[in-house]
Amino acid sequence: MLAITKLRRSGLSTKQIADGLGVEQHTVRAYERFDRFPTQRTYLCVVELAESRRITLLARDFLPPARNAQCEPGEGGR
User: Fold this and answer.
1) Tens digits of per-residue pLDDT, 31-68?
2) 14-21 and 40-52 are packed helices; what angle lies between their axes, rounded to 10 degrees?
3) Alpha helices, H only, the chain
4) Whole-number Å distance between alpha carbons of 57 and 75
5) How far apart are CA 41 and CA 38, in angstroms?
6) What is the 3-state secondary structure (H, E, C) of 47-67?
7) Inter-CA distances, 77 with 11, 23, 71, Å
């Protein structure tokens, strides 16, 4: 999850991120590799932790990397 990478780039360690999210360090690493996905509560904690560091998160920061996916005009919801 790119959101975790952004938190790391802000200077937080894996332990600090885990403590901020209320999860174990191995869980944070699993989120980052997309081996596990957070609960709704944990997603909210990721956003709050990022906001506390003045980090702006986008929807794509929570999605696994898409292979050759591009948004095409007219494919969005109307």
Assistant:
1) 999 999 999 999 999 999 999 999 999 999 999 887 76
2) 120
3) 2-9, 14-21, 25-33, 40-52
4) 23
5) 8
6) HHHHHHCCCCCCHHHHCCCCC
7) 37, 35, 12
